[in-house]
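Students often ask why we bother encoding 3D structure as a string. The short answer is that it lets us treat folding as translation between two languages. Here is a chain of 94 residues written in the first language.
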Amino acid sequence: MTPLLPGNVLRRCIHPHLEPLALEWINFAVLRRSHSTLHEDRGTDPKIVADQQGHGLGVHLDRYVDSSVARKREAVAALWSDFQALRSGPTASN
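And here it is in the second language, the structure alphabet:
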């Protein structure tokens, strides 16, 4: 039995499916980052994803997880809302 080399798997098994979509530029780094980011968006325990990818939690979060545009917008909207509340001052409840 011969071991599978990652480059051969990518070239022989994955790229043929990606070429019709003009995505043959995708490599394992892109797949790893996409895997991490999609799990982050789903709320998966980061330790589980780090274990799946074979590295520590710090590497997983610092290097591979990108926040989605939607989550970035939510964060900015929440910050803006807080800022607007501070600008308008305390409301008169009495």
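Translate back mentally: Residues 58 and 76 are 25 Å apart (CA to CA). Keep this in mind for the problem set.
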